[in-house]
Amino acid sequence: MIDKRFDLAAAVADVKDGATVLVGGFGAAGSPIELLHALIDQGAKRLTIVSNNTGSGNVGLAALIKHGRVAKAICSFPRTANSTVFQDKYRAGEIELELVPQGTLAERLRAGGAGIPAFYTATGAGTRLAEGKETRRFGDREFVLEYGLRADFALIKCRRADRLGNLVYNKTARNFAPIMAIAAATTIVQTESYVEAGEIDPEVVVTPGVFVDRIVTIPNAAQESTLVAAGASYP
Amino acid sequence: MSETTQRSMGWSRREIARNIARDIPDGSVVNLGIGMPELVASCIPPDREVLFHTENGLLGMGPPPQPGEADPELINAGKQPVTAIPGAAYFHHADSFAMVRGGHIDICVLGAMQVSERGDLANWSMGEGDAAPAVGGAMDLVAGVRTIFIAMTHCASDGTPKIVERCTYPLTGAAVVSRIYTDLAILEVRAGELGVVELAPGVDFATLQRQTQAKLVMPRVPRTA
Q1: The complex's ipTM?
Q2: What domains can you pick out in chain B, each with its CATH number?
């Protein structure tokens, strides 16, 4: 019988040093705080993190970076009004940054997850972010070659999950989660609620269970924005 | 920012937003950048239906929530709480940027650090050394959205012209801007030259040209307000 439920600590136990980890969320919305804190407790180092931002305050992704676990960040906007954690590490030369336009980051994940090794896009053509990349003209426009992105793990958050791993999200907390789920060898989901197979209408499933490996039920999950407003830090 | 920055000459931030809103046709799908562009949403004439897209996964973005009703999982690209209008749709980032990069968004309004006379846009980096750069979705928007409007002050706060022959800051996109809406004028990029569409009250062509580092062209029949 298929049952993808895991305990929190067990779900992240095999993340090895040097792993590439996709982290869902856009700003605070959709950030898998409990999974990130479990990863801090687990201790993996030299991680490459793929995420739109680099966390805020001193919790979640920002805390993972602050504790020196991240060697490289692949992201589009490593800046937040209320966090200097990433910027401080970057200035000190303690973290590498691969800056990727947001749509290119999304498409690299989608392509990676769909078995497409590379694609051409107009985004970034003629800019500093295309320097050193292959370009090709189609019609009268220049396009930049970008590579699909795959990872060892994805840490994402959803609203509801069933035993088979079918997922439904909550509003704009969906953001990168569905395309990270398809791009990781092992996709770990924290869900607000767990339901039996059949309780999610197949017509509204956003991420089909085949893309999901581990489900951790975390009711009343912490909201990153609430923790940051309260001045919390982890651990 | 408040209206207190209003000057004796030219348009206020709110009036700039109103000028942009006037040029957004009924039925348009529009993406608004962070800052002054956000003011455009509340300036759309009531007889027009305009759908707002925010690249973090919502089409049909509504106004900010009432106090106490903010949902931390319902935000805009500027990471501020918003609402969803009846008929709104949520989607993931690849779908959101398929809308952007696939040419499905009609108009995008962005701020700018510099715009060149051929419509090159610089709005993501000052090029300084040690701060980590951040680009977000700006390069995708200018590459994929058909019409790019710029909302900005005509000059930087120290008086340096922002409309230039060639951008000195790193480009967001080359030849992507259609129109520039500033406190002093509305300008249009056409065939590599900058035409004046409308002058703000109290601004004459010579004054505008002095505050612009690119050559401006005055059309024979300027639009009246």
Answers
A1: 0.96
A2: 3-65+72-217 (3.40.1080.10)
